[in-house]
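For reproducibility, we list the full input for the adenosine-5'-diphosphate complex.
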Amino acid sequence: MRHLSIKARLVLLHTILMTLVIFLVLGILFSISSNEILSNVHDTLMTRVNESYEYISYEDGLLTFDNDFIEIRDNIYLSAYEPDDTALIYGKLPRGFNRDVAFEEGMIQEVDIGEVTYDVYDMSVPIDGYHTIIVRGVVSLTAAQSEFQNTLRIALILLPLLMVLEVIIGYLLSKRAMAPVSKITSTVKDIRSSKDLSKRIALKGGSDEIYVLADTFDELLADVDKSIAREKSFTSDVAHELRTPIATMKLAIEDVLRHDLDQEVKDDIMIIKNKNDLMAKMVSELLNLSRIDQGRLVIEKGDLDLSELTEVMIDEFKEVATNKGLTLESKIDQGIIIEADETLIIRLYTNVLENAIKFAKTKVEVFLKKEDQKAIIEIRDDGIGIKEEDIPKIFDRFYQVDPSRNDKGSGLGLSMVKWILEVHDASYEVQSKIDIGTSFIFTFKIKG
Ligand code: ADP
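The corresponding predicted structure, in tokenized form, follows.
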């Protein structure tokens, strides 16, 4: 029972309860009516026998019987006898009834003959001018009961129909009763999948416990939504506030570096400069991420020649790679157009190429090819590689595989890349082997 849904449990309970009630009511009705039928049969039998003298007369030395005597009414058969003889003078008996049944006046005898039960009622009837004769009334109880059994049969056919009806009504009722719960579940699922905390259950038209629960849940959602919004604006406010001191420090550091300094001091100042640059980069990435979170980062998609843009990016990064003693090679299919925001695709290339150049040992390769209405970008390096268990985490915010090896990283670059891919409905795959290298593969749909 526990593994059943509440709806199914309600239907089951409702059906069991209603079936019990129906059986109980029908049982009571049947026992009342079977007693009623019996006493009715007895009454009719006695009345018919008691009234039978009206049909008998003695005229001109002849015992005469009206047609009414022989007529079978209410399944009752009348027959007349001499008092000391069971030989029939007049009348009819049900087929198969044994005429040797002894007379028992004034009481109803129940006689079983074969499968059939008869009620027999005998009465002495004095006839004017003649002596007393005996009138016997015989009725087959089985005939009376068979009518009752017919009713029972109809009831037995109706009962399963009633039960089916009960299940349907029970299902509809419980569905209606559980509708608010389904609404709560679907809203929560919706919020989880769309990550949109502004959605509400907003149940209307009731005041029972479930409506109170839904309202309370909506209030909780509003609180969570507010505090997340506060947190988002806090990140963006802090990032904004940090921009000015970082920029001032940058100017001051560059000023100091212009002076003639001891190499030792110069080295220390360079460390400060690098950290300041990293801080500036982090602040700018944080600002971007908070803009994304607040839905303030405007995406302007248009037709973008990905082949052309990739070539521009290669040209831009060639110098950086060469300065690090690396080669940057590329193989680009021409004329690939996608619908994309150019600034965001530039940012994607920048983040991934910077990483590749940072980690490569000798070379970085970029491939762009067209395959079945898809544009596939692959950025491959022969660097340190990423452990298999770390691959799913590198797209998380602030995740760095080994922060000590990566003093120019913030752990935010790939989370930005992931978001850019999402808004372009593009997919990604990372293939990597420790000390052999890493490949980032992005698949975009081609327009048209
Ligand atoms: P960061 O700004 O620190 O580089 P990213 O989000 O760009 O942050 O990358 C997350 C982590 O993924 C990095 O700390 C780095 O260890 C790992 N990573 C990214 N690209 C590569 C690569 N090409 N080779 C090896 N490790 C990489």
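Residues 330 and 446 are 20 Å apart (CA to CA). The two ends are 54 Å apart (CA to CA). Both points were considered when choosing residues for closer inspection.
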